[in-house]
């Protein structure tokens, strides 16, 4: 298939505009029109992973972490990042990263952790803002239903568990076309009055092109009047971290054993085990210390994440048990999540899970 077919699917699964500002998710090496015949999925892209792709005849590597995180000014092979990129280019291997955008979606990295820990009734801990926009347009009352349906089909009007959402109000519009106009109503050069409907719909930023295309293709007027507003409303299905609950409360040490076993962690770092036990659980794949205040405010009993610094453990203040299982351990099953989704969409496409453990950290136990 063409590379863009699989990247379009991945970006529908986790849109690129959901990534954090510092991130570099998306197609890093390769052209969208390149032919791809097999993909290798991994948490990290390293020279060893490129060698594995070559050996397995895969010309696409899909990684969670971007190999190019900061800008490259030169490609001289002086470090592992430059050497990995050079090797991929020389062997016509495309590199794609799906990072914090996959962290942010409700069905992404954090959902996979929750599934493995048995955390249910989940919701996003800190929903994102800046993802939603509102379209306002006006048309003749008799055409309003057809236009609304077209906008809904393009992705507008979805709010949480509801679809086909819009606000409508009837009023009078005026217009006067110049001598070269071709108005749908009335005559050029004459002020006209029309019974119109004002239609308001919300849409996600990444759907703007589709929504505007639907607007222009289905609006009856020669000139379409419309406004687009950026909204600060939170999108509840997208954001940082996830919180839910266990079916039954566990004692703190039993919960630690659950995390260690189900996440295949060799060691856990944690704060004091609290007498209240663990029922409500928050998770964040990767570095999650920035969410601690939100986790405490949500009333969680335990926070499972990674990369807590020494002094940050003090911030628990006996309100919550912090469980640091390691960055790799928290995200290692992301590859399985990606493979499951890709195989369901493209059952005849060859996709393989790496055989290499890319964790750069070793444990002496």
Automatic annotation (TrEMBL):
Metal-binding among keywords: yes
Keyword Metal-binding attached: yes
GO molecular function, one term: metal ion binding
Family: Belongs to the GTP cyclohydrolase I type 2/NIF3 family.
Domain of life: Bacteria
Positions annotated to bind a divalent metal cation 1: 65, 103, 327, 331
Name under which the protein is recorded: GTP cyclohydrolase 1 type 2 homolog
InterPro entries recorded: DUF34/NIF3, DUF34/NIF3_bac, DUF34/NIF3_sf, N-reg_PII/ATP_PRibTrfase_C
Residues noted as binding a divalent metal cation 2 in the record, renumbered to the chain: 64
Coiled-coil ranges (or none): none
Keyword annotations: Metal-binding
Cellular component GO terms, alphabetical: cytoplasm
Quaternary structure annotation from Swiss-Prot or TrEMBL: Homohexamer.
Pfam families: DUF34_NIF3
Organism: Pedobacter xixiisoli
